[in-house]
Amino acid sequence: MSDRFATDLNLSLIMLNRLLFSLAFTFICTCVPAQNPVPFTEATFHKLIGRFMKDPVAFFDKDCTADFVGIGVTGKRGSRENNREMFRSFVCVKRDYNDLLIRQYGSTGVMTGKTTSVYQRKDGSTFTHKDYWTQLFVWQNNAWKMAGYQATALDNREAAR
Description:
Shape: elongated
CATH class of the largest domain: Alpha Beta
Radius of gyration: 26 Å
CATH architecture of the largest domain: Roll
Number of strands: 6
């Protein structure tokens, strides 16, 4: 085999390798399905909130994004860790939802509504909390995750409307 033939063969194999890589890359990019979210519905929301009601600490671990941010009725911003710690001191024993509005924009779900919640502290005492809120969910790793919320406290007169 001549040196020129070996060089030409080597160059041909390199070009063939590049072509095969390009074809494989194109196939993967166009034929492998993207993460398409399941519809974000009221049932989806209630399933997530059911997990919150059962175990709020686990909810913040498993059902929230790592960069989750919540802004409570006091206006204070809290992380996933802050919320997890807060719910170690009390649990939500009852929650009623009203005026739910559910929207989905691609892989983002947005919910707004009014809630009356009854919480129980570790000592057994309870308190009621009424608020308007907006919650933001994103489709991440084939599941809906809460990315954030903002709540505004209501007084009893407004909550009764």
